[in-house]
Amino acid sequence: MDLAQYAELFLAEAREHLAAVNDLLLAWERDPTSREPLGGIFRAVHTIKGMAATMGYTSVADLAHRMENVLDGLRRTEQAPSGETLELLFRTADGLESGVNAAVAGRESAATADLASALERAAAAYQPARRAGQPRAPEAAAEPRPGGAAPGVPVRVTLQPDAALKGPRALVVLARARELGAVEGVHPPPAAFEREDFDGAVSFRLDTQASAEVIEAKLRQAGDVARVSVGAAADLERRAEPGTGARHVRVDLRRLDGLMNLMGELLTAREHLLEVASRQADVALEDVSRRVSQLTTQLQDEILQARMTPVWQVFDRFPRLVRDLARRLGKQVEFVIDGKDIELDRALLDEISDPLVHLLRNAVDHGLEPPEERLAAGKPAMGRVTLAAARERDTVAVRVADDGRGIDRVRVLGAAKARGLIDSEAEISGDEALIRVLARPGFSTAAQVSDVSGRGVGIDVVVTKVRALGGAVELRTARGQGATFTLRLPTSLAIVRALVTRVGEERYAVPLTHVAETVDLDPRRVTTLEGRDALAFHGRLIPLVHLRRVLQIDGEPPAQRPVVVVAVGERYSGLVVDAMLGQQEIMVKPFTPPAGTLPIFTGATILGDGAPVLILDAGGLV
Amino acid sequence: MSHTVLVCDDAIFMRTMISDILTQAGYEVVGEAETGAQAVERYKQLQPELVTMDIVMPDMGGIEAVREIMKLDPAAKILMCSAMGQQALVIEAIQAGAKDFVVKPFQPSRVLEAVQRVLG
Questions:
Q1: What is the rounded distance in angstroms from the CA atom of residue B58 to the CA atom of residue A75?
Q2: Which residues in chain B have their CB less than 8 angstroms from residue A39's CB?
């Protein structure tokens, strides 16, 4: 059997188990006397060991085996783990992760000898004389097994579709199975039984001499069992399960990207087809082009849907990060995650991971005060950091909030002035102005500035990244009460609906995500505000940006000109263009601006007629 | 000889109903308990062949009681009685050693099936 084809599947699954291990370790650390996390950790590590051994990744299997020994000792002695032991388990989880990554990449993982010997010592410390009649948790029947091929016969059990509480029922099934022999390679992992999308089908390997009939009879005793398959049939079924409910397959992201690229080409071709058809005055051609257009839209929806990923896939890594950071800095942090099930395009989600790490680090490092300072300020010693995702209109808002000291406007202002980044104090009166200052390249990256501002390391990097994704960053802060950064993102990255405009001879696209309205430029409604043109718009004055000026286009502008009102959060501005050419789906192409390009573009696209067009960055123009 | 059962639930209504279902089917309800602590005590005294255990009870919940009873007798047969929406607690109970569970509202046939499964 060629195992290489399973490497990615192994990697994905091992990572899931490791995420579960980290989660459970965090829960255990919060309450070391609790026994519940132990079983879950044990099972996850055990599964990783089995999978790694099957793949021939012996160093991973060995490390997992040693970790299992420590866990087993903790279970048998019924002792609460010491802080030192928990730390060791955390480090081992990290070691497993790098080991898994290295193994899949075909490398030997870095030396884990010190980890191995530390685990050895810990296991010895938790190894008491076994008392007779000692009750053991049910999963104890699955004895740790030295590395080697996963033993046993494949079994798949499908619960009745109407069974109540499928998760617990699946556990009963596993408990029955253990009466016949050791259970390995449970899929989905028991940690997933509690999830809502658990469909009641569970596969595992059962190390037993019992016949298929005996196995089936035994497992049916668990109740609510619709079907039991044993042997090759179980393996086949796991791959193509004709059950009810949602079924999932893992798809390589590159394949989805490929589909997405083709989709972009198809959209471009569709626009072209519609143009041609409208010129031909041929009823049959119009019919077929309309049909193609509808199907293209449906296909696009399906592809975009397939790329949507719940944010927990990235968020779940953060509790560990925040914990480690808080420990290192001597801060006390309660970390809250909200809106885990909100979905974003996979590529977008990957891209915001680093900015979020940045913001979370800032929140813990610079935002939250040390416990004694918090107490002195009349706050609880434990600070609170919140990471929340929410659907808001057409966007997804991801917020990183802390209840720390807030951003010190006066000091940021002083620093910005000292560096010649701003000339007037008025420039920094509001939160919106504050983030603009923080976002200036070169402002926040300077170490001494970050020290005095107490904040803001690399905010420019965050803002630049989010803008490049067609999003925007907002900030709310109050002295002594903390700061909230909001990343406002389109739900899907690659294809956006955009307004195509003309300025001079060139066309420019403005993503509709940020377009609030379009109005005709009425000179009677234009006044001057702080030396800049401003437009009366729904009872407020919004600054006007004359794109002809920005783009340095000479000549007379047309008499009638439209204004595209863009809104980023609470900030509005009006882009004055020469003409509006209509709306179109555009495929955003990665964009590396040539040197000297104005920093007002986020990307480029190809229109239906094959012409390349630049995409205006609403966030940068507001 | 009929099997002996200990019924644990903090609601008299539930205890009565479960006892009736079991008695009518020929089981012998040898005792009742309305707290987790009582359940452990009665288990020691009565050594029943089967325990039905409510999950949420005052003075030591059902899950803790399962742990205690399993310590006393690793071969104890405990059937959890749970409401819908208690998935996580049921999982915990099973991990603690409970053999099976039934979901409220009870249908007599379902309860009896589960009891037979547990007594095997």
A1: 27
A2: 95
